[in-house]
Amino acid sequence: MNQDHAKQERTVTSAGPKPTPSVLPQRVYLDGSTLQAICGYGAEIFDGHPIHRNSAAVAIAGLADEIASLKRILNNQPPPCEFVVTAECLRQVSGGRWRHYRQWIANVENTWLLNSASLEGSPGSKMMHRRRFDGVSVGDRRLVESALNLDCDTVLTMNPKLSAATDFIHERTGLQLIRPSVYWRQIDHWGRARHLTLTKGGWVEDDPGAPDGSKLGRNERANPPPPTID
């Protein structure tokens, strides 16, 4: 499954700032590598299929953990996160081989466009000076500029080259570049700090006054729900 993604991902390592219990990303930019993983492993992420033993997710160290983290994030997204998908990144999953789970991504893009007309109208307002970013490729620099122009505080990426520049870019721009596993650890810390528990029905809050230990439902969403595939 997903040979293109397999070629791209030879090793997977966690990258990004350490998880914090009280602060979560507010606006998360989904880059092309993340969108490809969502499409390529949509059955595992959205439909609960097990990862096949011959899958690249098994062969590539750490990739199965990233897919599992994407599954938790996309099916149990905490408030107040907002996902951002741009037309440029969407083109990276425009081919026929991505068709099955591309609709969820398209729905995210449509939701974003409806809520961000004023931001989309000011491209290039935050340009990264080339001298300060000699170690970052032109393509990655444009991605970072796009995320900054759309007031994103975080880029969710599975690109190993981009992940290698995490500390460098964060130091100069304040933008987080994190892998799904790191983002999920942040979410987990966030929930624990608020006495929330993740269940099949979403995030629920303990009711300290209930003698039977029942919970108060809490499952807000800023983005489209997971897709239903016929």
Strand content is 5-15%
Helix content: 40-55%
Shape: globular
| Distance N to C terminus | 20 Å
Mean pLDDT: 74
Order of helices and strands: HEHHHHEHHHHEHHEHEEE
Widest sheet: strand ordering: 2-1-3-4
With helices defined by DSSP (H or I, 4 residues minimum), what is the helix count? Answer: 12
Helix-and-strand structural type: alpha/beta
**Rg to the nearest angstrom?**
18 Å
Structural description of this entry:
This protein has 230 residues and is an alpha/beta fold. It has one domain (3-217). Helices cover 43% and strands 11% of the residues. It has twelve helices and seven strands. The chain has a four-stranded parallel sheet. A three-stranded antiparallel sheet has the order 5-6-7. Strand 5 (196-199) and strand 6 form a beta hairpin.
